[in-house]
Structure prediction request, 317 residues.
Amino acid sequence: MKDSQNEDAFKTIVLGASGFIGKKLIDRLGADSRVSFLAGGSRRDAKKEIGTKAHSLTLDYRDEESLTQSFAQFDIVFDARGAGNPGSSNRSIPEELQLIQDNARVIDACSNAGVKKYIFLSSGGAVYGKGQELLKETDDVNPITTYGLVKLTTEKLLHLYNQQTGLDYRIARLANPYGPGQRTKTGQGVIAAFIDRALSNSSIEMYGDGNVTRDFIYIDDAVDCLVDIAFYDGKQKIFNVGSGSGTTIGDLAQEIIRLTGSSSRISYNKGRSVDTEVNVLSMQRYFDEIGQKKFRLLNDGLMATIEYYKRETSLRD
Prediction:
């Protein structure tokens, strides 16, 4: 459990610690000398998920007073909480937008508690709306889902608090992370879902004609970028986090079938209004401000993930 006396390091908490990205952040930060004290925050006790790697805090995200007291002991807050499922967005718009109020409460508590820096995991796949190849942080943002709207509004809230109270922040517009540890039946993570279907030789279903193009980034690469962004002290506040390469969903399914030796067939369903045709993120700002980075090739990442799911069958339940 990380709890050192390094006065130059930061006391850090990861919100959403029991989730796929949250757990990976805990792993990465637990080995970072710049972190003196590490905790994982969740709506429920996350000791089972994070083990002895970090202290576990159970948080009530609707009780601002208790949140302020909890956050007062931390310098850096990583917000890796889930914000619903992009694929099921827009079904109950007023209800889904309640998440904005919840996020505002958390940000307000951090500001009141004197947190030094707030790291928000936004969505590079949702805030831009109708996408294209190599989207830049300066491109127009016009979400077509409530999921994206919640993410974008939270970004704007952070800018507001920075202007009003001085709360420092960084925003990571994350592409589609995948890799070992992601559950296969949560409705998020097309790679996890496709591998699960392929390993059981079941039909792989997709929306549209297979030409929807996405940017996939291996989870270890994504987490490395998130930590780099957190400790970056330059002028930029928003960074894309993706591989910078696009893959069609159809090609992805075919490659997973090939790599697993599966007899699965692909089933094409009617396209969805919540899906943009193309979404690939430019990493140029990250390279210019933080440094060059070599990302794991998709095939290598797929193989590592497939082998993991073959061993860890419980994550496929």
About this structure: DSSP finds eleven helices and 13 strands in the chain. The domain at 10-176+216-241 is CATH 3.40.50.720 (Rossmann fold). The longest strand covers residues 35-42.
